[in-house]
Design a protein that fits this description.
Blueprint lengths: L13 E7 L5 H6 L8 E8 L3 E2 L2 E10 L1 H18 L4 E7 L1 E4 L3 E9 L2 H18 L2 E7 L4 E4 L4
Parallel strand pairs: 1-5
Antiparallel strand pairs: 2-7, 3-4, 4-6, 4-8, 5-7, 8-9
Helix pairs in contact: 2-3
């Protein structure tokens, strides 16, 4: 029998992971990590901006091989929960065609204290952009569409 209770296992503190093709419901995502023991929920909401590398952007196509992307997203979340005991997380990344202002990724990181909640959200977005296989193609005002580095 393990010395680690179910509530203390990093895997159990990953409350929700999904690659979605619809608008991300931020309140619903937050509800996955709310609890009486939580004193802070840090939300990271990544949105489509209207420019990149000096070019005006009108939208982005996000594509992923969903099973692999969700597997990697879960691994990133578990690693964050292992590094920050007490952290619980919920994450969604959107795929499909998004326009300027749309949320492409939302991370809810919860902890009893604000510093680990903030650190968890930051850690997850930085590692997610490096490791989770999600590709993006930008749409520009001149009609050109170009695949770009997803870490940008």
């Amino acid at each position: 029998m393990s010395d680690v209770s179910s509530a203390d296992r990093a895997e159990d503190r990953v409350r929700h992971i999904a690659i979605v093709d619809a608008v991300i419901d931020v309140a619903k995502l937050m509800a996955h990590v709310e609890s009486p023991s939580v004193g802070a929920i840090s939300l990271f909401v990544g949105t489509v901006r209207h420019h990149n590398d000096g070019r005006q952007v009108t939208g982005i196509d996000y594509e992923a091989y969903q099973p692999m992307a969700e597997h990697q997203l879960r691994a990133v979340a578990i690693e964050a929960c292992e590094a920050l005991p007490g952290l619980s997380v919920a994450i969604e990344h959107r795929i499909g065609t998004l326009v300027v202002g749309d949320a492409s990724v939302v991370i809810a990181a919860a902890h009893a204290r604000r510093a680990p909640a903030l650190a968890g959200a930051q850690r997850i977005i930085e590692v997610l952009k490096q490791r989770v296989p999600i590709w993006k193609r930008e749409h520009y005002v001149d009609g050109e569409r170009r695949w770009v580095d997803p870490t940008s």
